[in-house]
Structure formats: structure tokens, C-alpha cells
Amino acid sequence: MASTGTLLITGGAGYIGSHTVRHLLTLGEKIVVLDNLVFGHREALPLDRVTFVHGDMGDTALIEELFSDHQPEAVLHFAAFAQVGESVADPLKYYRNNLAAPLVLLEAMQRHGCRRFIFSSTCATYGNPVRVPMDENHPQDPVNPYGASKWMLERVLRDCDHAWGLKSVFLRYFNASGCDPAGEIGEDHDPETHLIPRILMAATGEIENITVFGTDYPTPDGTCIRDYIHVNDLATAHALALDYLRQGGNTEAVNLGTGRGFSVNEIIQTAQAVTGKTIPVSYGPRRPGDPPELICQPTKAKTLLGWEATHKDPREHIQSAWNWMTGPKKGRYAD
To answer: Domain named NAD-dependent epimerase/dehydratase: which ranges (predicted)?
Structure first.
């Protein structure tokens, strides 16, 4: 559907946000990006094609100014802290940033009559699986403050729908991976905790080895199994969710994944085939809270949004990440 106004994208300079910004620009959208650059990168944005505001979504005066100046017709909300271990060690940091700060955003939306919200949620809201694959009706019982903060904001959004008509789509990602195939933008976290970039960092010698946590899970090779979803497929899903809300859609939760799972060992072996390098591996004990298997049931995304993952082969994810890691930017934005 053609653009009907300005989009406000929080966290739009981050990994998934920046890929989504570029996709939406190809569709002719007018975009304002708000990012505090704690984890985002100004260089990930085409600054000649978006309005960039450096600031925090918890800044009441700034948010009010943004809504007064730009009158956004929808918000796509990516801004969040997302390190599970850190959330356990410092839960208040996560509840302040992932739950309390977005309330400032929602209050401004209510004041200005903006009633479309697309939320970058997570499969971590489900906690440990009671069945696999996991659909949207799977019980939500998060096992860490990160997942809990996302689950709580989902609840807030449902309450806002009942109270003042806010319509939201909660996009519950499984394991985001891959990069822009051309290598222009990519995944640049500090610290980097995601499996595929860490494997590739081991391949380049940036880190000594990749540690596999647990080899005795009840899976075919003893290592954890995850559903890897390419970041470009995530970007497409956000655009389709926006269309859905523009067409009068109701508040819904939607899983995003491929419906296929790959073990840690399989990902390492695939990365060795893609890079042509031997990847040094060390083996450690299980990490607390790591389920043996997380696989998405993506049927609802197809029926509700018309979305289906197009990059289902992990070779594509790893190759695009390798392009970024070894390209001109060497997997890093400028300081």
C-alpha cells in the first residue's frame, strides 16, 4: 500500500532497524529515525534520504517535539536492549529501557492520535518451549528479564488497544541473522553475542575460537537447534505489517521464522564451507536457560500478512554476513 504519511522508526540505526529503513525507502516511505546511538550506527543510515534525530525515546520533551513537527502516522519500534545475560545481572536497566521508556512514546501517540504501532518483539516471550514448533498460542512464560520486558510491553499495547484504539502488530522474531547481500550494512554489535558473526570472527582470527555451550542436549548432534531468520526477510515483514494496519487490521502477534531448525554444529560446518576456513571451536558446559530446540511455526505470518521467509538456507545468511565481515567495512562501521 502506498505511503500515507511519515513513519517514526525508533532504533532505526541498529541492525534490524537499519535494514528495515532501507527496505521501506524502496517502497517510497517518508521516514524519521530516532536513535540514541548506544548500539546503533549513524553510518548505517542513508542520511540524505531520512530525517535522523539523535536522542532517546524516554525524553518527553524531545518526543513531544518529534510528534508536533512530523505528525507520524505509524511507529515502528526497534529500540531495546537485547542481551539476555546482562538482563539477568541488571534487570532494572532492561525494565527501564524496554518497558518504561516506550511509555513516553505511547503517551505522545495517544495525544497526537497516532494509532499504528509495529513492535519488534521476540520468541523469548515464550520462555522454554512446551512444544515445537512454537505457534502464537504457545504459553508465554519468559525466563529472563529481557523476554519479560518484551512480554510486558505486549501487554501494555493490548491494554492501549482496549483503552484508546491503538492497533499493534507484535513481530516475535526467532534468531535474526545475515546482512545486506551487497555488504553495505550489516551486524555490528559491541559486544557481539550472536552465533553467526562470532563464528565468522573466529574464522578471521578476530577472536581465538567459537565456544559451543553444551554438547549433550537431546538433539541429533547434542548441540542446540535454532530457527535462523534473515534480516532482509524481517524487514519485509515489517512493511507487510504496516500495510496490514493501514488496511484496518486488528492487534495481532505474529511469529517470524522459517519453520526449520539447524544445530550449532551444523551452522559451524556450513560456515566452514562458505568461508573455506577451518574454524577453531572450544566446547563448554550448557548455559542456564538455553532450551534444546526453538523452531517457529510461521503459518500465521503467511495467512495474515502474506509473508513467508525467502532465505531459508543458512548458507545465504552466512554468505551475506561473510560479505559484510570481509568487505570494505570489514564488519564495522566508522567510529
So the answer is: 8-257
